[in-house]
Amino acid sequence: MHPDVRKLLEVQKVDQSIAKIQRDLDSIPRERARREAALDAIRRRHDELVAGLRQAEVDARSNETSIRSADEEIKKLETRLNAVRNNAEYQATLLQIGSVRQERGKTEEAGLALLERIEALRAELVAKKAELDEAQGVFDAFVSEGEVFLARRRIDLEKVSKGRDGLTHGVPPDLMARYSKMFGARDSLAVCAVDGRTCTGCYTAIPPNLLVKLQASSAVVTCNSCQRILYLAE
């Protein structure tokens, strides 16, 4: 194996560990954001139910007030009915009483519907509050555990990263730059083995002339297909 490739292979092992740790570090904030969005959706629905219940209760009280007002109006009209002096006025008052009673009936029906809605909202709110409390507890536990996990992985990252620069000592800058570009572009696999006559990075056959160079370790050889840096599997 070419000396520079051997060094890059060791660097790649470190970089793969670093990449794995970095994925872990990136995954926690993403997962937290996803969970927080789900929790916020539950909380929004809970708050909507609270607001809806309050409004329904306000409407129910207003409805009760309207019914009481209608009852008072009916009493006044019935009192007036006993004091009317002619048939026309009597009939007009009867019509008024009928109209008020009709409106009162509609109001009462609406009130019954409101009471049913209030009962349904209260039941849904109890269930949603329980769901919210449970979801909040799960989220808080995730945040706490996530912070511990992140702290541990940051320590791992610091440990793994130490000494990386020493591994690259003596590697030509242009080769190092090529390796770095390939590592980022090829799923953290810039240096890969040739198994038999096949590149294990892209599974393309390696031409005989490149196999000769690999066997001689006389030059840094790259795959003509995927451009990865090659070495012979031992």
Query: So how many helices?
Result: 5
In total, the number of domains comes to: 2
Please list the strands of the largest sheet in the order they lie side by side.
2-1-3
- What general outline do the C-alpha atoms trace? rod-shaped
**What kind of sheet is the major sheet?**
3 strands, mixed
How far apart are the termini?
Answer: 10 Å
CATH topology of the largest domain: Helix Hairpins
Quantity of strands, as a count: 3
Point out poorly predicted stretches: none
Write down the secondary-structure element order: HHHHEEHE
**Which range does the strand content fall in?**
under 5%
Bin the helical content: over 70%
Which helices and strands occur, and which strands form pairs?
Layout: H1 3-81, H2 87-161, H3 164-167, H4 173-185, E1 191-195, E2 198-199, H5 208-216, E3 229-232
Parallel strand pairs: 1-3
Antiparallel strand pairs: 1-2
Helix pairs in contact: 1-2
Describe the 3D structure:
This protein is mainly α and 234 residues long. The chain folds into two domains: 15-165, Helix Hairpins, CATH 1.10.287; 172-232, no CATH class. 77% of the residues lie in helices and 5% in strands. It is built from five helices and three strands; from the N terminus they run H-H-H-H-E-E-H-E. It has helices spanning 3-81, 87-161, 164-167, 173-185, 208-216, and strands at 191-195, 198-199, 229-232. The protein has a three-stranded mixed sheet with strand order 2-1-3. The N and C termini lie close together (10 Å). The relative contact order is 0.14. The mean pLDDT is 95.
